[in-house]
């Protein structure tokens, strides 16, 4: 057995790491000179340490084990205690959103009507299972429109860059319809511990999250950066042949028994099209909306808001320009020069696509104007920066169903998918899925 891993983001690197530990032969090809994909940390000359991908991670058991394996445990930095507070815009001002169902009833964030509707969920019978039900439909029928608009909608934009009217509940939060079916009520299931996990630590690493992928790449014996896979073919014996472009120019890699796809669907589809045209078409259909992260720094004295939380999200019904902001300086104060605060504001995603495609100067000006309005900011920013993703997070809508079906069918051809469109959009999801895939492959030797 020898496995070709195509893509050197967190998924491909983690898969290679566990294959290497199991003694399975592999080659990992990454087109970019830098490993890590979406995990990228940016240290600016002005003294800011920024993340251009995920800003922090939930410390899952699998991620904690990986960090320990890599000798990075002592570099873990927990988010500040205030990060437990999450704000949501309502009526033009930011208010703390209750973090647990019981507090929804005692907190003043929701109306009496919404609280009464929430209580009725205990008595509402379970609906028949619908594999095509959207997140919005599920929450609207179980909890009513206000919970959907002011709790679910902003968090779906923040986690998935998505639109709950299109995202599928069984692909994004499958545990919730499962609780409905098991207990007849989602809330009853949650109260009985149906989610199976408490609140996890929110962490980063001392020098940024890119430390994880840099360390993985440095520990791999068969990692080939700057080497792009340009074509895939199949020999008469069933092994896969790769055409490569790299420092030595065009080359043909030896035959591989398995392929591991650690790339976005739009990058995978052209490689598979000659051999598996139906699968390639399904993968090409997956939607990745554009998104920008706009970084804005201000003197602390210029900002009226206390910024005592993780950040603030903007529900679509509030009609804002941006989807919301992370308060980077509140979560990790050491990442910003003393006396300053830093906002990481997200423009774009499935609900704000037009804004994501505007020019950088337009985005920066619009973000500053909106921050000034809602946070009581006086004066201009000390500094602003931007990072743009033409394609950000894969959308788990109807189109992902075909992609997942294609991935399942490809396993019979000794092709496995480990990227976030298959594993789940979070880094812990990718680490868990890559590790399990490596364990499965190792048993086939």
Keywords:
5-stranded parallel β-sheet; Polyamine Oxidase, Chain A, domain 2; 445 residues; 20 strands; FAD/NAD(P)-binding domain; protoporphyrinogen ix oxidase, domain 3; 21% strand
- Total tally of structural domains: 3
Radius of gyration: 23 Å
Helix content: 25-40%
CATH C-level class of the largest domain is: Alpha Beta
Number of helices: 18
CATH architecture classification name of the largest domain: 3-Layer(bba) Sandwich
Question: How are strands sequenced across the largest beta sheet?
Answer: 8-7-16-17-18-15-19
Number of strands: 20
GO molecular function: oxygen-dependent protoporphyrinogen oxidase activity
Enzyme class: oxidoreductase
Subcellular location: Cytoplasm
EC number: 1.3.3.15
Description:
- This protein folds into three domains: 166 residues, FAD/NAD(P)-binding domain; 82 residues, protoporphyrinogen ix oxidase, domain 3, CATH 1.10.3110; 101 residues, Protoporphyrinogen oxidase, mitochondrial, domain 2 (Polyamine Oxidase, Chain A, domain 2), CATH 3.90.660.
- 37% of the residues lie in helices and 21% in strands.
- The protein is built from 18 helices and 20 strands.
- The strands form five sheets. It has a seven-stranded mixed sheet with strand order 8-7-16-17-18-15-19.
- A hairpin with a 5-residue loop joins strand 3 and strand 4.
- Its EC number is 1.3.3.15.
- Its main location: cytoplasm.
């Amino acid at each position: 057995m020898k496995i070709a891993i195509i893509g050197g983001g967190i998924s491909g690197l983690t898969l290679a790491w566990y294959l290497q530990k199991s003694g399975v032969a592999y080659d990992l090809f990454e087109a970019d000179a830098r490993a890590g994909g979406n995990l990228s940390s940016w240290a600016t000359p002005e003294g800011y340490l920024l993340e251009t991908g995920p800003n922090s991670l939930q410390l899952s058991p699998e991620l904690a084990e990986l960090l320990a394996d890599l000798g990075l445990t002592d570099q873990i930095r927990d988010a500040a205690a205030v990060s437990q507070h999450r704000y949501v815009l309502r009526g033009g001002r930011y208010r703390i959103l209750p973090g647990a169902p019981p507090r929804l009833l005692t907190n003043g964030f929701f109306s009496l009507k919404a609280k009464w509707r929430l209580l009725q969920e205990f008595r509402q019978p379970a609906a028949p299972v619908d594999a095509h039900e959207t997140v919005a439909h599920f929450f609207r029928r179980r909890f009513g429109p206000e919970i959907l608009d002011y709790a679910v909608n902003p968090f779906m934009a923040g986690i998935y860059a998505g639109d709950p009217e299109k995202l599928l509940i069984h692909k994004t939060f499958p545990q919730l319809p499962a609780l409905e079916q098991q207990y007849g009520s989602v809330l009853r299931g949650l109260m009985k511990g149906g989610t199976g996990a408490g609140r996890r630590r929110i962490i980063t690493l001392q020098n940024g999250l890119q430390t994880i992928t840099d360390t993985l790449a440095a520990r791999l014996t068969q990692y080939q950066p700057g080497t792009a896979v340009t074509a895939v073919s199949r020999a008469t014996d069933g092994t896969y042949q790769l055409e490569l472009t790299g420092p030595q120019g065009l080359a043909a890699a030896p035959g591989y028994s398995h392929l591991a796809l650690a790339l976005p669907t739009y990058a995978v589809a052209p490689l598979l099209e000659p051999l598996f045209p139906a699968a390639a078409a399904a993968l090409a259909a997956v939607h990745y909306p554009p998104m920008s992260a706009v970084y804005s720094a201000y003197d602390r004295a210029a900002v009226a808001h206390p910024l005592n939380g993780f950040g603030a999200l903007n529900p679509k019904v509030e009609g804002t320009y941006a989807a919301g902001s992370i308060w980077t300086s509140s979560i990790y104060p050491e990442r910003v020069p003393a006396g300053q605060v830093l906002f990481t504001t997200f423009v774009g995603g499935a609900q704000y696509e037009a804004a994501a495609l505007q020019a950088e100067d337009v985005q920066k000006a619009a973000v500053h104007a909106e921050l000034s309005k809602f946070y009581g900011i006086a004066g201009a920013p000390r500094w602003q920066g931007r990072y743009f993703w033409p394609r950000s997070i894969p959308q788990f809508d109807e189109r992902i169903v075909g992609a997942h079906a294609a991935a399942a069918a490809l396993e019979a051809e000794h092709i496995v998918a480990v990227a976030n469109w298959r594993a789940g959009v979070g880094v812990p999801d990718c680490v868990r899925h890559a590790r399990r895939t490596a364990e499965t492959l190792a048993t086939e030797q």
